[in-house]
Amino acid sequence: MQKTEEKTVMVWFRNDLRASDQASLSEAINSGHAVIGVYFLDPRHYRETRYGFNKTGYFRTRFLLETLRELRDSLAELNIPLIIEKGKPEELLPQLSDTYNITEVHLQREWTSEELAVSEKVKAQLHIPVKEHFDQFLFHPDDIPYENFDQIPEVFTAFRKTLEKQSPVRPVQNIGKPKKSISLNKSDIPEPEELGLESRITDHRTAFPFRGGMKQAKKRLEYYIWDTQKIKYYKKTRNGLVGTDYSSKFSPWLANGSLSPREIYHQIKKFEDRVAENQSTYWLIFELIWRDYFKYISLKHGDKIFHLGGIKNRDYDWERDEKKLESWISGSTAEPFVNANMIELRETGWMSNRGRQNVASYWAKELAQDWRIGAAYFESTLIDYDVHSNWGNWMYNSGVGNDPRDRKFNISSQAERYDSNGRFRRLWLQANIFRELA
Known about the structure:
Blueprint: E1 8-12, H1 23-29, E2 34-41, H2 58-76, E3 82-86, H3 89-99, E4 102-108, H4 113-125, E5 130-133, H5 156-166, H6 214-227, H7 234-237, H8 251-255, H9 261-274, H10 279-301, H11 322-330, H12 336-348, H13 353-366, H14 371-381, H15 387-398, H16 411-418, H17 423-428, H18 431-434
Parallel strand pairs: 1-2, 1-4, 2-3, 4-5
Helix pairs in contact: 3-4, 9-10, 10-15, 12-13, 13-15, 14-15
């Protein structure tokens, strides 16, 4: 690296991988200095966790690297280079700061333990301002009607109704170009195999055949809301299991921040104004509020979302049975509906919302297994893994979270209701397993 004399501002990208409606990027550009972006492929994200799974599996890693390619090219259009480094941020960022004469660093604020620990280590090493921005919410924390996070309700409905009445959604931020620029060599982006992951091919039956990246996200947004107007039927189709259009499929892009919830919200509002407003258009906003809710719950409860007793501190008699885990992951349990969903997840990195609730309930409530193992498997495998939604939903389905009724799914009844013709199970199960349903 050649040392730079010109002062520059750095944007440290994490789960905000977009060049539109991006607070850190906007603030950096407004500084008047040249801007450099950086992303770290942290080796800790590709190691095996204490639950026995790679923290980030192949499908999510591939989606991330696709996203980084698009981010690099989108930033280049703004005359902003993106440096992509393999290594730990706390070791590499101070070196980059010195090399490129960085005057300040902007990043999205994270608060879960692992991300927070890395942020604190970086700040301890740097002697320049590090400015963190809340930028993953629909409702910004400064705009909610609670004095502190301890006041966040334990029941979603109370949270939703309050915010719908009292909290505005901020407009989408326009991103300009820096007044000054710096020229750097284009960073190479590795393949997943170079990060130590075993190569996989997505099964052709997948309901999520899409690529990562901001432009891909906006293409899907345009398709789902405007080109096909599928959003008009979202509430009716959202519990579907087969195909690309039963739901919006926005979640993977939301999860790594290549699409902001505000961008979705304002497109829906524009659609309601120009085309139609109905239960379905509202229901997609409703789901965005659920996403916010789990983020606020993790802000309120901190590391409790990772504890066995969850945020309710409940003491269940959980088990850890390796044979049951193997059966659940491989799709060889006594429940064909669970099996079909688990095979889909293993072969594609995707599972429907309806499937997730059923396989989680089966793991925690039927098999009585440590729910955190299931959550960790989802973390490794799901393309759209989001720390708050994943662990929040797993707590909810396991009886240690925000479900006031502590529901347990009747798997057979759910299969009959949502896969009454057996199409989904036929799609993913071997013919001999499925014979009784044919």
